[in-house]
């Protein structure tokens, strides 16, 4: 077959088996239980597929989600998921076709003004206009690590709860954080996807998922055996830890750290400003390394930039570089009033700043500073003071955080 046999369309239920075969191969993941969940998790009519003749050779899904933006407003976001190209069809432009179809489709339909994803590899998505808008601090803390003596753990107990009982409590606690910038909505199937617990995941004696509940917090975790009978050294991996109060947060961490036999607690999706470091008596006991979490793409810059609130008044002309989405390319005047509300109009004036759309996506939630991007040469300033003013205005507090993977 030649390249000319390739064509792209959205899928239907009839394509599901082919999609499962392509993506199981692409993700090197042969687990039918996961695909049972994916039937509910994926919105099949929002999955684009590339066909080589009649053979599906690549797919990319979009989920209908809401994302909390600075100011507490929620925006629809297309949560891009399960992107893969069949083994044997790699580096022939399949992913490029999928990304183009998705972005153009969103724009033409006037659908979500922003798209988001979690990247399997950090080198892939910048070329498609995605930038890193939130990070996780992969954190490891030794078991039994003491807190500062004055840390308030409240009077409520943390208890282990069976999965079925825990799920509605966890989802309710999670939804109570919906005002936090970076919070993303999840469907029931999305919770199943996040808390997937198939037999294949319990290899090497790994436990089932445990659910630890506090009235103001929760943790989902798994333990893996290690050490010996006389010196057990189990490892705990936290899938998710959420809370609605500082006391709940501290109580849940304390509970996890105090489980006997645990040599260390690891939490990959830890917020970069998680209080654990300052709860510990010795902050160096928390080992952390930052990793990219939510990558954001402004599909329509004019609709996206007015959807959030800003931290300071601003009047700036942005030259936006976006060759993949030409409707964004060019100069836009962004004006922010005293209340932090924005207007965006196409501009004829000289630009104050030049910025690529991926870097605008990185700065959009207010976690990545425009001044930092400028220092790395990713934003060019044409009027003195424009970077500082825009950087201040884009900042968000508290630190944006997205716990969701997809
Ligand atoms: C949101 C998510 O689902 S993230 C998960 C992404 N999927 C996976 O990691 C599953 C395994 N990998 C795959 O299925 C494929 O290798 C994919 C999807 C990453 C790439 O698909 P391909 O069809 O081979 O990509 P395609 O040929 O369209 O390449 C487009 C561009 O991306 C680049 N690229 C592709 N894969 C990678 C990579 N892993 N790292 C860096 N660059 C990459 C190509 O070099 C090309 O660059 P160019 O525009 O400068 O020419």
From TrEMBL:
Protein name per UniProt: Acetyltransferase
Domain N-acetyltransferase: 6-154
Binding site for acetyl-CoA: 91-96, 120-121
Catalytic residues, chain numbering: 125, 406
Subunit structure: Homohexamer; trimer of dimers.
HAMAP family, per database record: Eis
Pfam family, one: Acetyltransf_9
Superkingdom, natural source: Bacteria
Record key words, sorted: Acyltransferase, Transferase
GO molecular function list: aminoglycoside N-acetyltransferase activity
PANTHER family: N-ACETYLTRANSFERASE EIS (PTHR37817:SF1)
InterPro entries linked: Acetyltransf_17 (IPR041380), Acetyltransferase_Eis (IPR051554), Acyl_CoA_acyltransferase (IPR016181), Eis_dom (IPR025559), GNAT_dom (IPR000182), NAcTrfase_Eis (IPR022902), SCP2_sterol-bd_dom_sf (IPR036527)
Transmembrane segments: none
Example GO BP: aminoglycoside antibiotic catabolic process
Entry similarity comment: Belongs to the acetyltransferase Eis family.
């Amino acid at each position: 077959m030649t390249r000319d046999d390739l064509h792209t369309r959205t899928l239907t239920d009839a394509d599901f088996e082919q999609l499962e075969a392509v993506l199981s191969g692409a993700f090197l993941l042969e687990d039918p239980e996961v695909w049972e969940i994916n039937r509910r998790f994926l919105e099949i009519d929002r999955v684009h597929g590339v066909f080589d003749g009649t053979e599906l050779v690549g797919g990319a899904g979009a989920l209908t989600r809401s994302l909390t933006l600075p100011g507490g407003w929620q925006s629809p976001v297309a949560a891009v998921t399960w992107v893969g190209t069949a083994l044997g069809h790699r580096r022939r432009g399949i992913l490029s076709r999928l990304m183009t179809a998705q972005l153009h489709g969103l724009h033409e339909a006037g659908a979500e003004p922003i798209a988001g994803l979690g990247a399997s590899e950090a080198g892939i998505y910048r070329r498609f206009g995605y930038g890193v808008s939130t990070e996780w601090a992969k954190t490891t803390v030794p078991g039994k690590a003491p807190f500062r003596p004055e840390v308030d753990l409240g009077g409520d107990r943390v208890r282990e709860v069976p999965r079925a009982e825990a799920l509605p409590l966890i989802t309710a606690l999670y939804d109570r954080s919906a005002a936090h910038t970076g919070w993303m909505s999840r469907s029931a199937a999305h919770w199943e996807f996040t808390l997937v617990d198939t037999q294949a995941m319990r290899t090497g004696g790994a436990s089932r998922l445990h659910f630890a509940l506090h009235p103001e917090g929760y943790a989902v975790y798994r333990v893996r055996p290690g050490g010996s009978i006389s010196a057990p050294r189990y490892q705990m991996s936290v899938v998710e830890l959420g809370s609605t109060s500082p006391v709940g947060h501290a109580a849940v961490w304390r509970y996890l750290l105090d489980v006997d036999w645990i040599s260390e607690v690891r939490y990959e999706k830890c917020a970069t400003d998680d209080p654990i470091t300052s709860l510990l008596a010795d902050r160096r006991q928390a080992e952390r390394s930052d990793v990219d979490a939510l990558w954001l793409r402004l599909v329509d810059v004019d609709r996206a930039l007015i959807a959030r609130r800003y931290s300071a008044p601003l009047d700036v002309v942005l030259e936006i570089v976006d060759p993949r989405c030409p409707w964004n390319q060019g100069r836009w005047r962004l004006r922010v009033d005293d209340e932090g509300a924005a207007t965006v109009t196409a501009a004829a004036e000289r630009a104050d700043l030049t910025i690529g759309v991926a870097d605008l996506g990185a700065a959009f939630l207010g976690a990545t500073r425009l001044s930092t991007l400028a220092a790395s040469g990713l934003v060019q300033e044409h009027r003195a003071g424009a970077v500082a003013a825009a950087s201040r205005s884009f900042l968000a507090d508290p630190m944006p955080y997205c716990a969701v993977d997809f």
